[in-house]
Amino acid sequence: MNPPTAKAVPPAYTAFHPRWYRPHVSVYWWLGEWRYLRFILRELSSVFVAAFVIVTLLELRALRNGPEAYARFEHRLATPVAIALSTISFFFVLFHTITWFNLAPSAMAVRFRGKRLPDIVVAAPNYALWLVVSAAVSWLVLR
Amino acid sequence: MQKPSNEALLWMLFSVGGVIAAFLVPVHVFLFGLAFPLGWLQAPSYEHLMQLVRMPLVRIYLFLLCSVPLFHWAHRFRYTLYDGLQVKHLNEVIFTLCYGGALLGTTVAGYLLWKMA
Predict the structure, then answer these.
(1) Would the N or C end of chain A have less CB density within 10 A of its end CB?
(2) pTM of the model
(3) Could you report the predicted ipTM of this complex, rounded to two decimals?
(4) Which residues contact B52 (CB under 8 A, 6 or more apart)?
(5) Range in A3-12, A105-114, B26-35, B99-108 with the lowest mean pLDDT
(6) Which residues 63-122 of chain A have a CB within 8 Å of chain B?
(7) How many A-B residue pairs are in contact by the CB < 8 A criterion?
């Protein structure tokens, strides 16, 4: 009688291995339909957020290196390529802001007197606060 | 036993970073990326910006602005690569590059703001 082995070798059933149902999804699945594309564009907005952080870090470094370095930095931001990239970035970060605020009603179901508040009522304070914060930042920088 | 997951912490950083980015990044990109270079608004002087950056509260603000949104990026970009390009087999490489990048950016931000005298 053989003692039971710790690791039994599974019998080779490969010839009759069941076929899994795994539909093949193209790598370009998000290109066909607008709502899929919009999802991917929304996710890619994060790349422009990261790019903004990198530019801001470069700006801080330029500030630290003195007025001449900062003037060079400003000059570089005014080149046509930089302006084009800033324009694209601006639209992407706006897209992030709008989609983020519009998610708030889905993430948080606010009820008032037993009734769920309409989405717009939950999202609107975000937009109001956004305007206030943007105005405050502008005021500090432009003062 | 399953390894305890960091997913909750990473998701929270993603979400807080998303809030910070949503509220603050558009106005910064508009001012420094478009309005000042294109001359729509009078750009602030070097001295004025230095005066701002020397304030501790502004430095904390800039640190948060330049760190947490990077974790927002790391999370979103990671899943975009997983789902969009279906590169699940590169899981660990992508994870390391995304969060490593976010940590590196955070360190650089901390260093620059600390040394900004």
Answers:
(1) N
(2) 0.86
(3) 0.93
(4) A140, A141, B58
(5) A3-12
(6) 63-64, 67, 70-71, 74, 77-78, 82-83, 85-87, 89-90, 93-94, 96-97, 100-101
(7) 154
Confidence of residue A140 (pLDDT cuts 50, 70, 90): very high
Q: Which residue has the tokens 């640190």?
A: B63
Q: What is the pLDDT of residue A15?
A: 66
Shortest Cα–Cα distance, B5 to chain A (Å) = 23
Give CA separation, A118 vs A80, A103, A129, A139, B22, in Å. Answer: 44, 13, 19, 33, 22
- Positive or negative, the CA dihedral B22, B66, A90, B53 is positive
Q: For residue A112, what are the β-bridge partners?
A: A115
Choose among A71, A86, A100: nearest Cβ to B29.
A86
Contacts of B45 in chain A (CB under 8 A): none
Closest approach of A102 to chain B, Cα-based (Å): 11
Compute CA distances A1 → A4, A5, B75, whole Å.
9, 12, 56
